[in-house]
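tokens incoming
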């Protein structure tokens, strides 16, 4: 089966610094895959190369077998490669209803006419379904900046989901979320439909190990090892990296 997303020999240099080193990576269809690595390993850069935020210095990105390396970030979203953001980038003064309406209108090609379309049956039905999926139904009319942080993070995932992703990149979805609200994030991620292939970039190992069926470890811009969670947990090289005893160069 064609991979949902693939990179071949992907590289990124910032002047003399190599942030991504010859990364050949495969995200299978329906994947629940996590990308981990210590601070500065190059995770953010890799995601920016996948999404087209940064141009690659070398290598290729394939989405469902099609080369998207030269496509803009927007064109990749239209083809179903969607990410959530690490930093809260929602409009605080809009409600989740308005925010989701914007995303859905954009998806339906109604961009710019959202205030009319909020009343449209199809859009309302879609908003309701997405809001229920992500536990936002009871806060749809509250200003986003008044919501608990966990709900704001859920809204970020909901917005990405409303863009109808084939591949969803979750960039630290639980970062900054208080312990009491983390379960909701975990449950929402666990309940994503199987047709959506998911790559999770995350520091929180509890979340990684509860979610992922496959884990890739990025160190110094390169893939160090990849495998099933138990294999990764037991790998001495991974332990060395995380315990700071990095003796492999
Ligand atoms: N725009 C840039 N210009 C120059 N160097 C950069 C740029 N972006 C990232 N880097 C460097 O590339 C390396 C990888 O950074 P990156 O942010 O991708 O790592 P990361 O694994 O996401 O780290 P963290 O987990 O701390 O966010 C770092 O050495 C960083 O300083």
């Amino acid at each position: 089966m064609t991979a949902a997303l693939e990179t071949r020999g992907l590289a990124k240099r910032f002047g003399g610094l190599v942030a991504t080193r010859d990364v050949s990576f495969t995200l299978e269809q329906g994947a629940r895959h996590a990308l981990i690595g210590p601070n500065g390993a190059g995770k953010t850069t890799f995601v920016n190369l996948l999404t087209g935020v940064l141009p690659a210095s070398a290598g290729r990105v394939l989405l469902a077998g099609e080369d998207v390396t030269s496509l803009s970030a927007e064109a990749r979203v239209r083809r179903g490669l969607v990410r959530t953001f690490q930093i809260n980038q929602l409009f605080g003064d809009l409600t989740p209803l308005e925010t989701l309406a914007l995303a859905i209108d954009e998806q339906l090609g109604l961009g710019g006419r959202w205030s009319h379309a909020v009343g449209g049956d199809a859009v309302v039905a879609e908003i309701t379904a997405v809001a229920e999926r992500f536990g936002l139904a009871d806060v749809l009319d509250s200003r986003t900046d008044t919501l608990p942080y966990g709900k704001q993070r859920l809204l970020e995932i909901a917005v990405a989901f409303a863009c109808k992703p084939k591949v969803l990149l979750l960039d630290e979805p639980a970062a900054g979320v208080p312990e009491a609200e983390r379960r909701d994030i975990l449950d929402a991620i666990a309940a994503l439909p199987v047709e959506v292939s998911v790559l999770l970039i995350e520091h929180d190992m509890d979340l990684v190990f509860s979610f992922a069926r496959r884990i890739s470890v990025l160190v110094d811009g390169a893939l160090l090892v990849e495998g099933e969670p138990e294999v990764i947990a037991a790998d001495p090289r991974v332990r060395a990296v995380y315990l700071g005893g990095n003796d492999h160069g």
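note: The domain at 5-87+164-243 is CATH 3.40.50.300 (Rossmann fold).
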